Amino acid sequence: DRPHHRRVAEVLSAIDVDLMVRQRCLFGGGTAIVLSHGEYRESVDIDFICSSIEGYRSLRGTVNSQGFQALLTRPFTMPREARIDQYGIRAALLVDATPVKFEIVFEGRIELSPPLESQRICQVWTLADEDRVATKLMANSDRWADDSVLSRDLIDLAMLCADGRIGSAGVAKALRAYGPSVLADFQKARDRLLHREDRLAKCMKGMGMTMRESDLRARITALTIEVPADVADESAESGPAGASPAAGHKAPRR
To answer: Which CATH class is domain 1-127?
Structure first.
């Protein structure tokens, strides 16, 4: 029960849940994974993902005309006005005099699956597991080489996929959006994290993780990507030579 997570929960409990789900805008990112898996690390931001053009247009119009508070059921102090552009809506809300960053991202690269009642957090609808996998694989491709990110995308995948299998439905979405580089970037991210001296320990410390390093290392080592045969064939036909599953990836079943 981390103090900042209590602030995040206070904001989540004030979201107009019906409005957000009506526009197909769902709670995602690392914070959703962390809050639904025992708060294994510190996660400070609130990220909502919207893959509907009409939904994002409606949310953007609402914030433009009525302000960001129109997305909430009770008011919060905001240190600055919300920023809006074609990619997203960004705001900060003060809870206990501490800013909680809140972002709505327009994600046009994948279509989100319907959310599950059993995965709601503070009554807020969240991404389905396959979309958590897809967005984390894409985020890893975008920033795995940035040390300041602390390998959080790979670590989140390790905690999300308890049995080590990165499910094929989410992998398929990431591959269709980014191509076979998703597989190569996953392998490079894992090699970089596990083989650099003290790197995993530094990442864990930076995110306030208290689990045993050996346990997390075992989880990361056990990760295997399940590549659907049809998507693997598409990648092989259209992608570069590295499109085949790299070492550590589970070969597609035929």
So the answer is: alpha beta
